[in-house]
Amino acid sequence: MNKRYLILLLFLALLAPTLQPPAFGRATTSFNHWLAQTVYVPLYSHIYADERYKDKPFLLTATLSVRNTDPERTITLRKVNYYDSQGKLLQKYLEKPLEIGPLGSTRYIVRESESKGGSGAKFLVHWDAPAQVTEPIIESIMIGTKMQQGISFISRGRVIKGTTAP
């Protein structure tokens, strides 16, 4: 064996204990527990998809999905409010609090024909729980078809206010 090869082997042998394989496929044990959150969820009631039709938007049906990821505890939705591009409240989707059981989910639909929200529409979702829970998944799913063209995508909510568990 040549000297360079031996030095490389020695270097790799010394370095090997510090190398960690990527975390693909491994569960992580570091995650947040929450008592309450206000989540901003972008929602697109329409987009502009073709420059030939600059003033004609591509209308979309949107679904707001709220998924309780905690396998043991219930969360309670307190507010599910829909706003337009200028921040004006268009609709309150909850008349009273709604409990979502462990691993349960609910959804709210914004029909394709609803064009008041605009391309900058959004939901503000407020939830809480009596004890710490794993963070729910709150996202919007948009879908639309026109002629032979279809489009679909998701937009994940972002926490803008919250209370973490001690």
What distinguishing features does this structure have?
166 residues, mainly beta, six-stranded antiparallel beta sheet, four-stranded antiparallel beta sheet, elongated
Strand tally is 12
Q: What is the rounded distance between the termini? A: 58 Å
Shape: elongated
Main sheet properties: 6 strands, antiparallel
Strand content: over 45%
Summing up helix and strand content along with how strands pair, one would put the structural category as mainly beta
Low-confidence stretches: none
* Rg calc: 23 Å
What is the helical fraction, as a range of percent? under 10%
Number of helices: 1
Taking all residues together, what is the mean pLDDT? 83
- Would you list the SSEs in sequence order as H and E? HEEEEEEEEEEEE
Summarize the helices and strands and which ones pair or pack.
Layout: H1 3-15, E1 33-42, E2 46-47, E3 58-59, E4 61-67, E5 75-83, E6 89-92, E7 98-100, E8 105-110, E9 122-134, E10 137-146, E11 149-156, E12 158-164
Antiparallel strand pairs: 1-9, 1-12, 2-3, 4-8, 4-10, 5-6, 5-7, 5-9, 10-11
Describe the structure in your own words:
The protein is mainly β and 166 residues long. It has a domain at 50-161. The protein is built from one helix and twelve strands; from the N terminus they run αββββββββββββ. It has one helix at residues 3-15, and strands at residues 33-42, 46-47, 58-59, 61-67, 75-83, 89-92, 98-100, 105-110, 122-134, 137-146, 149-156, 158-164. Strands 1, 5, 6, 7, 9 and 12 form a six-stranded antiparallel beta sheet that branches. Strand 10 (137-146) and strand 11 (149-156) form a beta hairpin. The chain starts with a helix and ends with a strand.
